[in-house]
Amino acid sequence: MRVVYGLLAVCGLFLVAALAGFFDSPEQKVVSATRKCRSALGINMLEKAAEYCKEAADGARDSERVSHLAAAGANMQMAAFVLTQKRVGEAADYCRLAVANWSKVSPGFMDSERAKDIAACGSVISLSLKTKL
Description:
By secondary structure, this protein is mainly alpha-helical. It contains six helices and no strands. It has helices spanning 2-19, 26-42, 46-60, 68-84, 88-103, 111-132. Helix 2 (26-42) runs antiparallel to helix 3 (46-60). The model has no long low-confidence stretch (mean pLDDT 84).
């Protein structure tokens, strides 16, 4: 009977670890944090948005284990969050990272999203240049 309880305990721990995202790849963690950041920003939960956006942007820096598409999304979302905090220079830095990541994504893949993101980043970067003058 002890063996059965032991096996149930191990299975329970495995299930908890799986539900907590312990086995997620770095890319899955970045995509999840980006989605949570977007959602938190959408409902004006700025403290949670800061936490999730930071997690996504930090994970996006691991370029060997995260795709350029996921990194572009994370950096765009972090730029959007930082812009809500009126930190234009920092938003422009994240936009530059996002544009660099978008340039490494295969052409023909999410072209409309790429065009919108790059256009938005162009506006943010030009705004940051104007505010520095």
